[in-house]
């Protein structure tokens, strides 16, 4: 069994207080280490808060370049190395042009090295006023297996997870800031994406209220057959640990040969 122990954090952000959010995040990493987790996944924009009408300046103030050793990035790199644990850290980033920012998820390995970054490709509503969209679907090689990332609204587009699956992703992770009025969609996304790509799919959602936005948690882990392995509590700040068997993907893909049997229509 090639297992991976995943630690999913339903994080409640403290608006306008970066240091408190970092402190809380570190405490969750320490707890995950105590539970012998391999990977900790935080939700979308968990350090700044999400609501564009309330925290837009923090998107820019907290944005980092993954190629520069900022205090913020160094904190998570050092914590990953100290605890020998992989991290998914979603926050705003910039590239060569400061002030042009992306809604991103940074991947840090057990050695404290940044191995890459995914930039959200499908921006929702007011996000478009602040972020530039990404244009790539990278897959990251961690010691537990191959990991793909999509962020929140990306999960509604089958092309995103399909590209990740075809690139070899075994785990597709979806850090999110998903509102309660769309919970019916949340309940569909991960079952559908997992089954059609026969891989493990994980949704990690924020908790709390930011103005008119009610973020409800309810983390999900779904196996390659679309069966829900975790359906976490609603409206509770919490962390769950779920172990998945990545070797089982081969059997699922033999029994459910969607990827083998897919046809590409070159003309309509």
TrEMBL record:
Ordered alphabetically, the record's keywords are: Hydrolase
PROSITE patterns linked to this entry? CN_HYDROLASE
Q: Which Pfam families match?
A: CN_hydrolase (PF00795)
Keyword Hydrolase listed? The answer is yes
Organism domain of life: Bacteria
Coiled-coil residue windows: none
Positions of the CN hydrolase domain: 4-246
Tell me the protein's name.
Answer: Amidohydrolase
